Fold this protein.
Amino acid sequence: MRHGGEILVAALKAQGVERVFSVPGESFLAALDALYDSGIDNIVCRHEGGAAMMAEATGKLTGKPGIAFVTRGPGACNASAGVHIAHQDSTPMILFIGQIDRGHRDRQAFQEVDYRAMFGPLAKWVAEIDSTERLPEYLARAFQIATSGRPGPVVLALPEDMLSARADTPDLPPAPARPASVSPSDITAITEALARAERPLVVAGGSVWSAEAAADLARFAENWGLPVAVSFRRQGHVDNRHPHYVGDLGIGMNPKLGARLKDCDCLLVLGARISDSMTLGYTLIDPAAPGKTILHVHPGADELGHVYRPDLAIAADPRAVIAALAATPAPRRWEVEVTAARADYEAWQQPKPTPGAVKMEEVILWLSHNLREDAVLTNGAGNYAAFLHRYFRYKTYATQAAPTSGSMGYGLPAAIAAKLQFPERQAICLAGDGCLQMTVNELSTAAQHGAAVIVLVANNGRYGTIRMHQEKHYPARVSGTDLANPDFAALAQAYGGFGATVREMADLAPAFAAAEASGRFAVIELVLDPEALSTALTLSETRAIGLAATGKS
């Protein structure tokens, strides 16, 4: 006879789980007890949102469900941000929520929430486990759902009395992995459509990917002479130094690449959703009249035709499709198109100077040239991230962990998860001053668990993205976008880490070297000129555009 916590943790071990992220609560004490001597690392976080984001980042970097435990009510509400990220980013993740006793339901008991109603729109599956004996069944199904088709989050509520009750129930082994396959006729249909194209474009993305898929994609592009782009925040899907790589289609994209997407006559999408961020708010491709042949390969059948009607829809593992395509003979090549698209990418990478002694474009270029090829870079949301997208060249798979959902505060928890998962690799977080402060308390988690991440915080004293839009639409009417910030270096030191402040570009390399030599987590504050707002425009230039557009002076 085992209590429910022991049965649950045994199921996690059977699935190969090595680490969970949690904020403890009295509602799942039995699970905490079972974790005690299980061999599974329990990373204790400072906020449920941080714990959920760490679990999501683990799923994103490994392709296996990241696991988080939080308590009922407020804990679940706090964790919902991470579930939303997992949903929009198609990341496998399982969130366990402690729940009230089964006999107290529907009385508005202390911290009672109906989690099916709460998480229904955010998760692939939400369930509440009423029977201790059925824990292995629910766990097996949770892992299967989280990783099948379009991956995503699963939420399981654990009534406290169910979890502490004892049962004699056998463990269930993981479901055997099914070899990915694709129909030869589907591959023929793709190649025949491509062979007819005059201006083809390949877009890779989504969460079902691998290092082998990145290599196969490069081989396919070389054999066929095709230009390859990636979707928003999936730049690690192919070596950005490859001559057939032409850039990323996302927020802040190269306008010339956007024009190429609009003008292409055959679009092959491998694994990605055809989203608003990829199409500039559905303006580059009209869902009602795409004006091009669309070949869409996606692991989730429900995603095909969700917004854009594809001429060829293939519900399959994109890794298997790319492997098959890489082995096909190439009937024609598009050297001129590839050369022009790559030249546009190279030109876009030439730094556009921003004001001030510390320039984000130079910071990112320095990182691109000096970090190890397998360094993991993480970020949340903000204009600072546009510099990363534009100027950094990702070299290998699983080196980018960033929210396609646009969630602020993600970078630090994700970097901690990356460092714990890959302790031998550099884990670098890029954050804005507003972005970092949403989860800055997780520096304490990094200290406790020895995650020697390096955080570079771009401090321009404002919520930069919102200020940019504010100046465009309501110029010179600053409302709610200015920030009062701490001394970030001193804050890092207060948490037990290394802190440095960079006020000149010459300070960056020594500060970074000292951060690495410290062996601790580090925060390097980049003091930016208040005029520095985006990769393209200063604050004053943005305001001038807004004044002209609104007829003011």
